[in-house]
Amino acid sequence: MSLTDTSKENLQLDPKNTKVFSSRNALKSLNISSLLNTSPSSKEANPTNPQLLIDYAPEIFKNLHEQEPTGQVSQEYMKLQPEINQKLRAVLIDWIVSAHKRFKLLPETLFLSVTIIDKYLEKRAVTRQQLQLVGVTSLYLSSKYEEIYPPELKDFVQITDRAYTREQVVKMEKEILNTLNFNITLPTSWRFFERYGGISDLNSQGKSVGQYLLELALVEYHMLKYKPSLKAVAATYMGHKILNRDYSWRIEDTGYSDEEIKCCAKDMLILFQAAPRHPLTAVKEKFSRPQFHEVSSLRIS
Questions:
Q1: Domain limits, the chain
Q2: Which of 2, 40, 172, 246 is 20 to 30 A (C-alpha) from 18?
């Protein structure tokens, strides 16, 4: 699965076609009070599940919000890259989604690997030949961090069609960790979405819609302008909105204005409607499976 045959300059990425909203009513005002409720009476998915750490969740997510700026990536970093651009990044992330699916890894592993890629590229210029090496090494790193039984190093070498050696991956692993000061505990939109989906009573299909939107956003460089928590709020909102479910959540204060949430939600809706025509198809194909309720085949009139 080498990138060399897929990184074509004529890819039509970042499809911002505002005309898609011409036949739709404006998104109505959000009746949201907060997705950060600290009340014990807040709705939680599977409240008996000890892994959800309900008693500690408010403090955990308060800390994640405080740490969020450390994981935020500048949307300007591509200006510092002489050999790669937004299109090549999109091709890489599309490939990462495919590799992640092949290994059957956890969702957080995918989101963390993309965050590591962006954090590294923000600090170091790379050549086109190095780009996939950065990607596969970041996926290797995040799988060791998140998975109970991560794939072996030889599996990551093989998935690149042996474009790189074991020694190159290990060397790049050291380079990435040193560049990031060994800090890969980075808040991602997936962690926030897990929380928001639970306390807003988002059903299984709605969670698939929200995850689909978040993974579409991973591919698009321009979506870096939104904080991970804001993308998670918008994806949760759209998970209710697209399925025409009640999204009046009995919660206090999101920390975001209605305007900020709707702006992000509109960009996600553009990605959703443009996905069937997008030249990169890994996310769309992934969410066409029954496991994800085939949400990529949903159409909005």
A1: 18-69+187-297, 75-179
A2: 246
Rounded to 5°, the CA angle 228-207-259 comes to 45
Under a CB-based contact definition with an 8 Å cutoff, are residues 113 and 145 in contact? no
Single pTM value for the model: 0.82
Specify the CATH superfamily of domain 75-179: Cyclin-like (1.10.472.10)
Per-residue pLDDT tens for 35-88?
333 333 344 445 555 555 566 666 766 777 677 877 788 889 999 999 999 999
Residue 256: count of CB within 10 angstroms of its CB? 21
Q: Which two tokens stand for residue 110?
A: 């995918």
C-alpha separations of 130 from 89, 115, 163 in Å: 12, 17, 10
CA distance 256 to 197: 17
Q: At what angle do helices 107-123 and 189-199 cross, to 10 degrees?
A: 140
Give, in degrees to the nearest 5, the angle at Cα 163 between 161 and 164.
120
Q: Are 9 and 90 in contact (CB under 8 A)?
A: no
Is the four-CA dihedral 124, 130, 135, 139 of positive or negative sign? negative
Q: Which residues pair with 249 in a beta bridge?
A: 32
